[in-house]
Design brief:
The structure holds two protein chains of two kinds. Helices cover 72% and strands 0% of the residues of chain A. Chain A is mainly α. In chain A, helix 1 packs antiparallel against helix 2 and helix 2 packs antiparallel against helix 3. Chain A is globular, with a radius of gyration of 21 Å. The relative contact order of chain A is 0.06. By secondary structure, chain B is mostly helical. Chains A and B meet through helix 1, helix 2, helix 3, helix 4 and helix 5 of A and helix 1, helix 2 and helix 3 of B.
């Protein structure tokens, strides 16, 4: 096995165990920290895919902002978080559904691995940022989805501020 | 090189763990973390297929990257709105456990 495969296997092991620990941890702050480890592992997987831009975006957007918002929300709602069981009564059914999905997908992929012809790596170290940037502002390319995404982000921001805003007379 | 199915199996594993978190956890923020994990699994899939398709073509294909960027935008928007909803619900009902939010139950 090559060095890249070892890097991938170790990263995948760390990512999956961090995800399991995230689901299993009782304290929400610990779950958030395990989620950070899992997201970091996904960023390393992006690096092995030569998607360097998305590895950086993963660090900036997920670990940099989404995780910070999650930690803030955990701290704002701390009082009710620790009491009671952490799983609902349907946890066994949920485990069954997730296990069946995982087993079916893995079975398909392993059969695919056995039967299919392996892809050949061309070894082209390509630059992925410049074509992406050009395509996102190209009217022939993805300019319209890009603008729609920015409008969606603006709507989500305004909606989030409106929902979380404390009106007088409501609340505690 | 890393076979494509390794990425797909890793992605399926992360997706299943996220699915279990969404279905089984009682805490609303834990459910949101499960959704984040599932979106990350989808992104691994998209970028793996993009990578191998680009290797076959010999030049970078932008469509897969644009898809992955859209997933990032969706994840950010979804997290912002969901956390605002959770904080609003906490302010009114003093709980973030989804089993106890029974306002719409008849």
């Amino acid at each position: 096995m090559s060095a890249l495969q070892w890097v991938f296997l170790v990263t995948a092991l760390i990512t999956v165990s961090a995800a399991v620990m995230m689901v299993a941890s009782r304290r929400m702050m610990h779950a958030a920290l395990w989620l950070a480890v899992a997201l970091l592992g996904v960023a390393v997987v992006f690096v092995t895919l030569e998607a360097s831009f998305f590895a950086v975006v993963q660090l900036l957007v997920y670990i940099g902002s989404i995780l910070i918002i999650i930690v803030f929300a955990i701290m704002l709602t701390q009082r009710s978080t620790e009491a009671g069981p952490r799983l609902n009564p349907f946890a066994w059914g949920a485990a069954g559904v997730a296990g069946v999905v995982w087993a079916a997908l893995t079975y398909i992929f392993i059969r695919w691995l056995m039967s299919g012809t392996p892809l050949q790596e061309l070894g082209a170290s390509f630059d992925d940022v410049v074509p992406l940037g050009k395509a996102l502002v190209d009217a022939e390319g993805f300019a319209v989805p890009f603008e729609v995404a920015s409008v969606l982000l603006l709507a989500a921001l305004i909606g989030a501020v409106y929902i979380a805003f404390e009106r007088r007379g409501e609340g505690s | 090189m890393i076979p494509l199915s390794w990425y797909l199996i890793l992605s399926a594993t992360l997706f299943s763990i996220g699915l279990f978190a969404v279905l089984a956890r009682r805490h609303a923020i834990a459910i949101l973390m499960g959704i984040e994990l599932m979106l990350n699994a989808v992104n691994i899939n998209l970028l793996a297929f993009w990578h191998y398709w680009s290797q076959i073509k010999g030049v970078p294909q932008v469509s897969g990257m644009v898809f992955a960027a859209m997933i990032f935008v969706l994840a950010a928007a979804e997290t912002a709105v969901a956390l605002a909803l959770i904080i609003s619900a906490y302010r009114r009902h003093h709980t973030v456990v989804v089993d106890e939010m029974t306002l719409l139950k008849g």
